[in-house]
Amino acid sequence: MVERTDGSRLLKDEVAYELTIRGLPTEGSAAELRGRLAQAIKGGVDIVPSAIRSLDPQEELSICGDKAKNLSEFVRAMEDTWSSADVRRVEARRWHLLKRLTALQGDQHQMDQRDHLLEAVCLLGDEIQAVKGALRKNPGPPGSPSPSSPLPEVSETDQGEGSLPEPAISRLPYYGLAATPPLVRFQCSSKGDARFSVSAEDIAGQFLESNAYLRSMHTDHRTMMAKGVFLATPQEAKIKDFTTEAASKVTTAVGLSTSEISQLNNRFGEFITVLGALQREQLSIKKGVDAIQLQFGHLRDKMDRLSLSQQGELADLRRGMQGLATQLETLRTQAPLPAPTGHSMAAAAHSQNRTAWAPPAGEVLRGHGVLEQPFPPPPPHSPAPSNIHGPSSNFGYRDMVASVGKAISQIAWYSGDSKVGSAESWVAQIRSLKQLKELGGERIPESIWVQAAVSRGQGEAILFLQKNQTSLKTLDELEAALRRRFEGIRTELSYIQDLERAVMAEGESVTQYGERVKALAERADPAKHPDQNMVALQAFMRGLPDGIAVSTAQMNPQSITEAMNKAQAALSMCEALKTKARPAALHEQPLTTAAIRSQSRPSSPQHGEHRRIGYGRRSASPPLRHKKGSPPPHEKRKSWSYNWNRPFRSDVYCNLCRVKGHWGRECAYRLGGAKY
C-alpha cells in the first residue's frame, strides 16, 4: 500500500509545513489547520514546487535533524503496553519526515547531510517494525487495525529483467546500501618518468576508508538476514557487482601505488649516489677552503711582522708622492699648455691626458733614504705648423675609396654563414672601422662602405652581394639582407622585393621560372592564391625575355598558369624560326637556351671578354667544323669519348664565382643551380 499524509496524527508545525508547500494559509489553531489539510488532501490539491524551493535548505536540515533525533528517542522509549494506534502515529510522523527530506534541494554539502538524515530515518523503520512484531505477538483488544509498512508493496509490472524492482530500490537507502563509497582522491601514473606525488598516508587512509565501507555493507547484510529479510537474486547480483567495483578501484589504486613506490625506490638509489658524490665534492671544497685560510693566516702573520721602520718609510713615500702631485697641479694652473689646434692628433691627446705629466723643471725628488736628483728643464714648445689643414679639406672621392679599401682589408671574409648573429658581427666590424675613420676626421659616405663590404664576400655570399649591391645603400640594409638570405630571417616585404626583381635566368625553362614566381607570390601574400595574384602576373611578364614577353602580353593572359602556357608557345615558335635561319651544322646545340639568350639582357663585360678570348683561340683551328666524334688529328686523344672542345676550357673564366674552367651558365651558383 502507498502511504498518504494523515494530518490527524501530525504535530501543528508539521501540519503547517504541509499547508505551506501546497500554497495554503497557516493561520489558526491546530484543529483548524488539520481540518484545512484534510480538505486539501481530499480535494486533490497538489504540492507547489516553487513553494518548496522558497524554503531555506539549511534551516530545513536543522529542523529535520531535531525531529529525527526526537522521534528516535521516542521510539526507543516505547513499552509493550503501546497500542497499534500509537505505532500508526509514529509511522505517520516518520513518513512526513521522510517525504520532507526527499523534497529538500540544496548544494552538494547540504545534499550529503540530507542523505545521512534519510539513512537515519530509514533505519528508524527497523525499530518500528520490531515494535510491530511485538504487537503482533501480543495483539491488542479485538477490532484494532493491524500495523502497516511505510514501504511500497512489490508490483509485478515493476520487476523488469535486468533491473531491480521498486521495493528493492526503495530498500537501498533503507538498509544503508546507497551510501556513497569512498572515492580515490589521488591519481597514479604508470609512466617511468612521471613525478611521484602519492604519500603513504594517502594510501593507508584510502585503504582504511574502503575497508570500513565494506565492513559496514557486510554488517548490514548480516543484520537483514538476522531479521528474516532476504534479498532476491537480482539484488544480490547488484550488490555483488557494486562491491566488486568498489574493491577493484581500491585494488587498482594499491597496484599503481606499489609500482610508483618501486620507481621511487630506484630513484632513491640514484639520489643516494648523487648525494654521495656531492658530499665528496663538498669535502674537497672544504679542504681547499681550509688550505686557503691557512695560507691567508700565514700572510697575515707576515704582514703583522713588518717592522715599524718599514711602515714609516712607506708613509713618508706616500706623503712625498702626494706633495709632487700637488706641485704639478699648481704648475699646470699657472702655465697652461697651448691649444691643441696647432698640433697633431697625438699631441692633442697627450696634452688632454691629465695622467701623462712631466716632472717640473728645477725640482728635486726628496724622500726618506733617497738621493736628491734634479730634473732638467723641458725643451721649449715648437710653434704650430701653418701648412696643416683639416683631414677632409682636400679629401676627394678616390682618396675616400682608397682609404676604405685599405681599412676594409682588415675585415674577415664573409662566406654566408647560416649561424644566427654571423652577419651582425661581420657588419659590426665594418661599423667599427667607419667610426674609427670618423674619429680621425674622415667623413666617408656609408654607400662606399657598403660597396667595399661587397669585395670581402666569397662563395655564395659574393654572388648575392653582387646581385643586390645596387639596392643596398646603408650598412643596416646590408645587415638585414644578409640575415634574411643566409640566416633565414625574412619578412613578406623581402619576398615582395624579390618578386619585383624576378627575371628569367639563362638556362631556366618557362615552367621553372613560373613556379619560382608562384612560390615568391605565395610567400609575399599568403592570403591570396598565387595564380590569381595580379602583382605576381606582372612580375612574371616583366621577367620574360623581350620577344617572348611582347608575344605573351598580346595574348592577354589572366593568370600565371595561362601566361606560362602562352609564353611556352611563344618560345617554341621563336625556336622554330631560329632553327630555320641557322645552318644545319649548328643543330647540335640546344635551341631553347640560344633563343632565350638572344632575347635576354646582355651579359657582363667580363663574360664577353672571356668569351672573345676563348673563341679567338678556337678561330685559329681549321675553319671547317668536324662532326661530333671525329676530332681533328692534332686534337685526338686516346679516349674515344673525349670532347675536343674541353682543352679550351682552361681559359674560360666564370663571371659568377670567379673560378676558371666553366661558363657562367654552367656554374653551380647560378640562379636555379645546385648550390643556389
The parts where pLDDT drops under 50 for at least 5 residues are: 138-196, 336-373, 384-393, 584-628, 634-645
Q: From the alpha-carbon coordinates, what is the Rg to the nearest angstrom?
A: 54 Å
Q: Note the main sheet.
A: none
Number of strands: 0
Residues in β-strands, percent: under 5%
Overall mean pLDDT: 70
SSE arrangement, N to C: HHHHHHHHHHHHHHHHHHHHHHH
Looking at how many chains there are and whether they match, the oligomeric state comes to single chain
Structural class of the secondary elements?
mainly alpha
Question: How many alpha or pi helices?
Answer: 23
Amino-to-carboxy terminus distance? 95 Å
Mind sketching the topology for me?
Layout: H1 12-21, H2 30-42, H3 49-53, H4 57-76, H5 84-102, H6 108-137, H7 166-174, H8 200-226, H9 233-304, H10 308-334, H11 345-352, H12 397-408, H13 422-439, H14 446-454, H15 460-468, H16 475-486, H17 492-500, H18 510-524, H19 534-543, H20 546-554, H21 560-581, H22 591-599, H23 605-619
Detailed description of the structure:
The protein is mostly helical and 676 residues long. The chain has helices spanning 12-21, 30-42, 49-53, 57-76, 84-102, 108-137, 166-174, 200-226, 233-304, 308-334, 345-352, 397-408, 422-439, 446-454, 460-468, 475-486, 492-500, 510-524, 534-543, 546-554, 560-581, 591-599, 605-619. Among the domains are: 7-152 and 165-174, no CATH class; 200-280; 397-533, no CATH class; 607-617 and 642-676, no CATH class. It contains 23 helices and no strands. α13 packs antiparallel against α16 and α20 (546-554) crosses α21 (560-581).
